[in-house]
Amino acid sequence: MPTSKRQRPPVIAVTGAATGVGRAFLARVASSADFRRVVAIDDQRGDVANVTWRVLDIRDPLLANRISDVDVLVHLGMDQSLDSDPVERRRYNLRAAQTTLTACAAARVRRVVLVTSAMVYGAAPDNPVPLPEDAPVSAETGTGLVGDFLEIEALARRSLRSHPGLEVTVLRPAALVGPGVDTVVTRHFEAPRLLVVKGCLPRWQFCHVDDLVSALELAALGKVSGVVAVGCDGWLEMDQVEEISGLRRLELPAGLTFGTAQRLHRLGITPTPAVDLQYVVYPWVVDCASLRAVGWKPSWTNEAALRELLALSEGRHAVVGRRLSGKEATITAAGATAAIIGTAAIVHVARRKRRP
What we know:
The chain is α/β, with parallel strands linked by helices. It contains 14 helices and 13 strands. It has a seven-stranded parallel beta sheet, sandwiched between helices. The chain has a two-stranded parallel ribbon with strand order 7-9. The protein has a two-stranded parallel sheet with strand order 8-11. The chain is globular and about 55 Å long.
């Protein structure tokens, strides 16, 4: 019988390749025999060797010319800083995603892999635990990062309709943990107490960068496709989180919690809108069924990921997502209970700084 011709390993490109998750993924595929060649794309040259560096702004329409030899592109060039101006950040993220998708279609790239977040499912007191991958996308739009993720997924859906020959896979990780990760969840564990809304206890699920990287490799190889959730197995109950972290909970009514958080955001004191607080008080645990079906297993447990998060956060102090200076941290230490939702002292200090 004639033997089937073995398919050549694909050429892969990685955007956002110089830093963060992009660099971690680039380092993995650079040493993998599953890819014929690795192209690294960023506006600065990184330090990973044995790859082809192409330095350019990924929002440049000329991107299509630079990926004409690419089979698979993994898009990790996204601004996820809590401290970025939300309007500028969204403009950048949407332009980068749109340009990438359009360029891939024009260059006949077979497969694009995007990363958003399991936050798009929304965090709610009545969420099933865990949420199936095909659960409705119920997150609230707004100026926070979750709004960026929702818009990027909408672009991906439109791209599938406009370019039916392009395969688009979207990975939705649980709360990310790892070096350099700075999110509303990681800052939550920099607070003196863990906020809990009365009547509902959160369940905690994490996704270490190492496991996101291994899942990205499977997606790049076409082993999983469509919408793919990524995270540690199971979840931690609040009692377990308190025991591991050594932090105690503070229970407050939902109205007081979200109302105060929104006022602080309007004053410019906290970087994230009140809706983002839902992700630290309500559950959004996901079931990683697609990855499990192809034999993938996370290398990190939720407990180990939380311990890593705590170690990386040591020495930092935050209140409702706002990173505090040394002086402000002293103020919050004096009144840790009130500090969780923003103390009058912090508001006073912030206002005094604004006075001419």
